[in-house]
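Sample A.
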Amino acid sequence: MESFFPFAETTDGVTVRVSVTFLPEQSDIDSKRWFWAYHVRIENHRDTAVQLLTRHWRINDERGGLQMVDGDGVVGEQPIIQPGKAHDYVSGCPLNTQRGSMEGHFVMVGSTPPAFEVRIPRFVLAEPTVEQ
């Protein structure tokens, strides 16, 4: 699992794992548009269920550009993750540079308040021909 999800971080018993795939068929290098898919697995190692409420992303490109993305849930869902279970989703990120990174956090709530932040590890977006 570690090789498929090379980026991982655990916060308060919840582990977030990420893998990234460059999508050349959705990229247009001549127009300076690169596109990646990222697969996120959220694992609940706590004794009680957790629910993902919101997300916060910091997306950086190699020219120093920064984009912040905030919203409810992930891909239209606010999943409840039972103890010992995981939730997987796939999304995508376009950039106007051939290299960048993403990181952020989810806001989750357990069986009792308060809500808490779960860190999303920093991961690199790089065209395969670019040295990682």
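Sample B, a different protein:
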Amino acid sequence: MNILILGSGGREHAFAWKIAQSPLCHKLFVAPGNAGTALIATNLPISFNDTEAIALAVQEQKIDLLIVGPEEPLVKGLVDKLRLRKELANLRIVGPDQRGAQLEGSKDFSKQFMQRYGIPTASSRTFTAETLEEGLTYLESHSLPIVLKADGLAAGKGVIISENVAEAKTVLNDMLAGGRFGEAGHKVVIEQFLRGIELSVFVLTDGVNYKILPEAKDYKRIGEEDTGPNTGGMGAVSPVKFATSKFLQKVEEKIVKPTLAGLQQEGIRYQGFIFVGLINVKEEPYVIEYNARMGDPETEVVLPRIQTDFVELMIATADGELDKVQLQVSPQTAVTTVVVSGGYPDAYEKGKSITELATLEDVTAFHAGTKPGFNGHVLTDGGRVLALTALANSLENAVMKSQKAARAVQFEGKYYRKDIGLDLLRYPD
């Protein structure tokens, strides 16, 4: 089978790494890919939003299976556009259509969806530029802290938590009247702040059947002890110590099953991944957000724990036969530490030479923001540069190996959090 993965981040490198292990994979392509995917697949210089170029590549390379990594092409309707093409009638696609992707593409849509189907989430209201004054008045009686979310895609940075009403009013005004977050901020969801500990649960579904993949906890803030601005993710751990079988059973009954039933009720045939961002509030799960794809860097700890042939899972998802495949998961712990460019998540420089990659032991280096340089050198090409994943028999050993690799890799201005997983080591048994 010839397989094409769309995307260029750590998630897509992890997909490629897992797929390359399958005897079902004949030729593997990634568009546009990075320096890491270039080592195990053929990179195609195609934007993941370029429908025409993707359709042409599918035909030229005789692609049998397409996996869409990032959210942007899903929200823009790439899957719908490809399915309308008669010449691509036999192409298997893993990724929801545009209606399904609205679970991530619009916070307002997902909130209304959860309310319709009784899925536990924080209470909220949505405001636009036309109702800005009403929103400002609403904030005056809101409990603190206040969560403000840009409705659309904002690269993981569209959530602001305000500790006082004056700040919240400024943020709301900046988003609705000042253009902060651009089109993504044309609607703003104001919601109740929930106190608890976060984790992510990943669901793979063929539209009817589903598999719950290994859960993960990621670390969103740039600074240690979860300080500073949000990023796309500074590290992740799987499994999650506090996600007991009893808690995960509640997630399945109260969230996963109603979500899939709701999609079917609305006539949405969802074939792909649903990332459920959760918060554990006194052992009860609440949905913070949905994503219409796998998370990054969570994919880099989830996939190493999946023992089932990943291509077999993808085919079953596209063919509506996920019930025929058994999901097997390793009991080992995976930890990934993300090494980023200095200045991230704000301004940062690219093109820095990365050294010591070849010397890493007991870890898999997933490339997130890299590109090939001259004479075999690898250069930085993004804010998040590498996700260094260790798989071990204990959380302590996985943390140690991942952090050792983060110390070893070198490039000018590198930064990484030294506390990834330490909170879970301290978490009571």
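Observation for Sample B: Residues 276 and 290 are 5 Å apart (CA to CA).
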